Structures are given as structure tokens and as C-alpha cells.
Structure prediction request, 382 residues.
Amino acid sequence: MDFNFTEDQKMLRKMLRDIAEKELKERAKEIDKSHRFPRENVELMAAAGLMGITVDPKYGGGGMDYICYSIAMEELSKACASTGTIMSAHLSLCAMPIQDWGNEEQKERLLKPLAAGSKLGAFALSEPSNGSDAAAMNTTATEDGDNYILNGSKAWITNGAEADVYLILAQTNKELKHKGVTAFLVEKGAEGFSFGKPEDKLGIRASSTTQLHFDNCKVPKANVLSKVGDGFKIAMQTLDGGRIGMASQAIGIAQAAFEDSIKYANVREAFGQKILDFQAIQFKLADMATDIDAARYLTYAAALAHDNGEPFSRKAAQAKLFASEMAMKHTIQAIQIHGGYGYTTEYNVERYMRDAKITEIYEGTSEIQRIVIAKALEKEYL
Ligand code: CAA
Prediction:
């Protein structure tokens, strides 16, 4: 598919594909099986400049646009979805909001090491008893001299036990509901800040997912991101950007499933011929390729709107909704094409299906994407 990519964007894809094929793909199966957090992949991405690919060069980033981010997420996730997840939570959910909302001191102190990949970032909005209803959070932050004291728990946090810098959303005034939410930057090692056990997940098993616990955790006022009460807006805008990455991740997983399927169908024989010669298989592959391209168009449209400074919330939600449901549908078809072999860990397609499922859930479920889209449509058309 030609989307009028620039030479730089084409070179980026080629470089990433090489790295992903040589370094990430083989390791993906092992780390999925062992649940091992791939620190070496983080170092590799840092060395390639990926951990700060969209960050302003002033803070040591690559200064690239969201089309590039989308390309990066697709290629990484095609080889290893866990690695894509680690990078996206770090970059789009932690580094980028610090760039967009942080003050100079915070950017010097925290954004620079995040962009370099010497520190890893995380984002914490969801809680054990509220995920989709983000404003209903129970974590509190109480003013105490030059500090805020955080109490509560966050759940399903990507890079949970592995990060160094955490963007935490907490209620500074619960009566104000979403207008009482404030964003805090909390560093690993802060007193009263601990992690729960790693979640034993269906997919993206090499990424770390834990709860975070705050027990009278003291956070300096200097670590408030933007202003008190800006937290909900920061979270929503951050997720808008993150959803472009999630759509790209789903596309990468689906593309991997497609490529494995067409190759398998070309060598597997049944009833005296390659299964690729049966229309039943051809139709599945045709549908896969068509839907993958459609998802790419939606995703690049959202990325382009982001890069042009246009409203992109609805476009990002549409891209994530379509791409994630597409990836789920077609990874199941990829298993069907592989038959019994596809149901075993000898082939990668069962992992693709397990990894695809999370894209319908995190950074807003498919149901939440439909709510975001419907709300935007009402504003646009009524
Ligand atoms: N950008 C900026 N502001 C926004 C916004 C956006 N995209 N969306 C909403 N807002 C603002 C609204 O304008 C409104 O502001 P005012 O009161 O000033 O007018 C305010 O936010 C409240 O808006 P709503 O009334 O629409 O809010 P709501 O409580 O009904 O919730 C929601 C809206 C879209 C359902 C939201 O709760 C939501 O996105 N939920 C899903 C949360 C989510 O995606 N969680 C994923 C967790 S992160 C993760 O998964 C990462 C990981 O590590 C795994």
C-alpha cells in the first residue's frame, strides 16, 4: 500500500523491519512462554532511538511524526507485540504527555532520560474497581505543605514493575469528579509506593502488568503535571494519541498472521493440492489483506490529523476500534488456515490471537471507542 510515504518514513520502516526480523521475532516465542520482561529489547529500542521517536529533539528525541510512530508500532508488534506494548506505554502514555503538559524543569529532569530510553515510563489511570469509568477513580492526593500524599491502588499498569517514571492520575477533590483529577509524576523508589504481583495474562505475556499501591506516598508539588484539576483532560488527550499506537499494534499483529497464513497455505497440501488453491482459503486471505489495508488507512488518517494539529479523537477511536476487532477476527482465521497445527505453540498464530485480544480492551475497550465516536458524531452533526 502506498500512502505517499516520505523517503525518511520508508527508511524507518525498512530499518525497523530489519531490527524486528533479526532481533525481536525469534525471541518473541521464548519470552511469551517464560513471561520474561525483555530488558534487552528495551536497550535495543533505546539504541535505535525508538524510545523517544516522537519526542522533540530539544529533549533528545527523534522529532518524528505520528505516521512514523504508527510505522514503528506496526513493525515492532508484527515481530513481538509485548515489545510494542512496552514501547507504546512508555512513549505515548508517559513521555508524550510530559512533553505536552510538563514544565521545563520536568522535561529536563524526566523527559530527557525517557527519550533516551535510560528510564522507562508508565501511565496509571485504571483501578481495581474502575477502568472504563475513568473519572470514578478512588486514588486520592491530599495537599500537605510542599507535597501531596497519595493513597490508593492502580490496576493493569503496563511496565508496572519495570518503569522508573509513572504518570499517576489521582483525585485532589473527589466532589468535583473529573474536574478534581490531577496528574502526578511519581518516580520509582518514592516512599509508600509499591507494586503488586505480575498479572498472569492471556497475551502480551512478556510485558509487565501489575497493580501499583500508594500508602501515604509523598509526592513533591514540583511533580504535579500541568495544574491541579487538569488530570482528566491530560488523560483523555493522552489516550487519544495512544490509540493511534494501539491501532498500529493490531495491524502489525494481523499482518504477521496474514504473512504466516499465506506461506503456510502455499506449502500445506490437502486433497492432492496446496490448500492455497482452494477458494475457501483464498477468500480468507483476500478478506484479511483488505481489512488490514482498511485499518491502515484509518490509522494513518488519524495520525495525519494529529500531525496537522487537527481534532483527531474520533479518528483515533475509529482506527483503534476497527483495527483491533479486525486483528481479533483475522488471527482466529489464521488459526483456522493452520488447522490443528495452528492450535499448538509450534506455530505463532495462537500467540497472535492471544496478543490481538488485548487491543480490544486496553487504552479503552471497543465499547468505549464506540462511545467516544458516538459523542463526537453528536457534536459534529447535531
Ligand atoms: N480530550 C480532551 N478532553 C476530553 C476528551 C478528550 N479526548 N474526552 C473528554 N474530555 C473532557 C470533556 O470535554 C469534559 O470536559 P468538561 O467537563 O470541561 O466539559 C470531560 O473530559 C468529561 O467528559 P465526559 O463527560 O465525556 O466524561 P465521562 O466521564 O463520561 O467519560 C469516557 C468519558 C470517554 C468514557 C472516558 O471515561 C474514557 O475514555 N474511558 C476509558 C478509559 C480508558 O481508556 N482507560 C484505559 C486505561 S490506560 C491503559 O489501558 C494503559 C495501560 O497501561 C494498559
User: Anything to note?
Assistant: The longest strand covers residues 147-158. The radius of gyration is 21 Å. The beta strands are 121-124, 140-144, 147-158, 165-171, 181-187, 193-195, 209-220, 224-225, 269-270, 273-274. The pocket of acetoacetyl-coenzyme A is lined by residues 89, 93, 123, 125-126, 131-135, 156-158, 178, 232-233, 236-237, 239-240, 313, 362-364, 368, 371-372 (CB under 6 Å).
